[in-house]
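Notes taken during the Thursday session

The instructor put the following on the board and asked us to keep it in front of us for the whole hour. The protein is Periplasmic protease. We were told not to look anything up and to reason only from what is written here. First, the residues (490 in total):
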Amino acid sequence: MKTILKSVLLLFLLAFSLQSCEDQDDVESPAALQVNDFVWKGLNQFYLWQADVPNLADDRFNTQEALNSFLRGYSKQEDLFQDLLNKPISKYPKGQAIDRFSWIVDDYTVLEQELQGTSKNDGVDFRLSYKPGSSTDLVGYVRYIIPNSDASKKEIKRGDLFSGVNGTQLTVSNYQSLLAADSYTLNMVSYNGTGFESNGKTVSLVKTTLDENPIFINKVITSGSHKIGYLMYNGFYGNYDTQLNAAFAELKSQGITDFVLDLRYNGGGSIQTATRLASMITGQFTGKIFSKEKWNAKINEYYESEDPESLNNKFVDKIDGTAINSLNLTKIYILTTSGTASASELVINGLVPYISVIQIGETTVGKNVGSVTLYDSPTFGKSNRNPNHKYAMQPLVLKIVNAADFGEYTDGLKPTYEQLERISNLGVLGDSSEPLLNVAISQITGSGAKKAQNDKGVALKSFTDVKAMSGMRNQMFIEKAPEGLLRALK
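Then, after some discussion, the predicted C-alpha cells were revealed:
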C-alpha cells in the first residue's frame, strides 16, 4: 500500500518536473545521446543533492536542444554521471567526498542480480589491509568462504593470508584490476610476528555465477542459564526474507534468552529487509516508526505537504501475509567491523530508540543514505525500458534517520565495546571462543571477556573489502519503487 501511495504522489511530481524541457522544445534527444539524456533526467528528478549541483538545476537548460548541446560534451556516460554528482569519491578520494556511493552500470541484469546476492564470485570473502609500515602494499585475509563456491573446494579457509595475485604484489593501484579477473592465482603468505613472508602456497580460483545465502550461521549457544541465539547475517537480500523468518522461528522454538546478531561482514542491502529484520528482533512495536526517509527538496516538500506518513518505514508483523516470527527482545548484542554498512547501520540506529543495543567490535562505515535503481524508461521503472542499451543508475536518493530523528553518523557508529579482528587470532566463526562473540557472551553472562587472549596479535589498518569492491558497494536501497511509479502511470 505504501509503495502504491508513493507512486501516485510521484506521478504528479514527475509529470510536472519533466515538462521543463518538453514544453519549451519538441526536439527529442538523438539516438547518440539517449544514455546521456537518461542520466541527466534521472539525476535531475531523483538525486538527493540535486539542488547542490548547478548543472542539475531545473532551470539550467531552457530547451531540449540546449540540454543536448551540453550532453554532446561527454563521449562516456560514466564521465557525465560522475560530473553530475556532488563531490563524488572518484574526484575527492582523500576525505572531502560527499557522495561516496552513487554508481552507474552498463548492464542492469548484473546489477539486479548483485542486489539480490547473485554475483560472479569465486567464494572468497576477504578484507584488504595495508602492510605494516607501507602506504601502498596490501595484504588480504580470508574472512569466510561461501558454501558451494569454487573456493569451497580448494585449500583455503578463514584466516589465510595472501599478498599477491599471479605473482604480482597487491597494491593500492593494481588490486582492482588483479582481483577483477574471472580467474587468478592467489600467492599466500604467513605472518612471522613482524611482517609477511611467502609460504610457497598458491590457490587458483575461478569465478562462477554464485547465489550467496546471507544466513551464514544460525545456532544456539548454551552458557550457564543463558540460551544465546547467534545469527551471522551477511547481506540484506530481499529474496531470502522467508528463510530469514524461518531462522528466527528456529531460534524462537528453542526458547533463547539472549541474542547476538553478527553483522561484521554485512555491507547492506534492502531497506525493506532491514525493517523486517528489526521487526523479527522486536515484535512489540508494530506500526511504530522504524526509520524516516528524507528525499531531495522538491520530492520531500511534496511528500510532506500531501502525505508525510509515506516517508516513514514502520515495524511490521507480516511478510507478504505470513506472520513474522518475533523475539520480543528488549536488548540485543550486535557485532560490527569497519565493513558493516548501510542497511546494517540502519538496523542498529533504528533499534536504538526502542531497545538496548550493545555494539561490539569496530566502528562501522557510516552510510546513512539510500539509493534506488533507475532505468531508461518513461518513468525510470523496469517496464518499457529503452531497448537500445542496458544502462542503469543506482544514485543516492534519500537520507535516513531513526524515530528520534538521528541520522548523523557519516563517521560510523562507534561500538560500546571495541574489539578488533586480529589476523593471528581470528578464531572460528560461531565458536564461543571467537574474540568478538566471546566479548558478547561475557557481557551476557557477566563472566568477563578473555581480554588477554583477545588482544593478542596484530590488527592491520583496513583498506577495503570484497563487498565494497563489488557491485553492492555498501548499498542501502528501496526495492521496486520505480515499478510502482510505472504502475501508477498506466
